[in-house]
Write a structure and sequence with these properties.
Layout: H1 2-18, H2 21-27, H3 34-47, H4 49-54, H5 59-67, H6 69-97
Helix pairs in contact: 1-3, 3-6
Length: about 100
């Protein structure tokens, strides 16, 4: 359930970043799909050992964690790190395919 919510939030994060006027002229030449970035992001988030360990608890403990500001901050940070890392891969691929002129 948590991963589904994170996955559902990801496309908007990516689309908002890509919609910036600074990126549009370049990304129009090689579009970057939010689905690609989000699939990569979710793999990165799920592979973080601390996050994976935090999921291996009983339901009451997990519900309590979800209400914690620290846990929410960790999730947001992990998600943002994943989005930036995966988006960076796609942006690098774009720069290899387009010219500044």
């Amino acid at each position: 359930m948590l991963m589904q919510k994170l996955a559902a939030a990801c496309p908007k994060m990516v689309e908002d970043l890509l919609a910036g006027p600074e990126l549009i002229a370049t990304t129009q030449l090689r579009p970057i799909g939010a689905a690609t970035v989000c699939a990569c992001t979710m793999r990165k988030v799920e592979s973080q050992p601390a996050f994976a360990a935090s999921l291996k608890v009983d339901e009451p403990t997990f519900v309590k964690r979800l209400q914690s500001e620290r846990y929410q901050s960790y999730l947001f940070t992990a998600m943002l790190s994943g989005v930036f890392g995966c988006l960076s891969i796609e942006l690098d691929a774009t720069l290899e395919k387009v010219s500044p002129e």
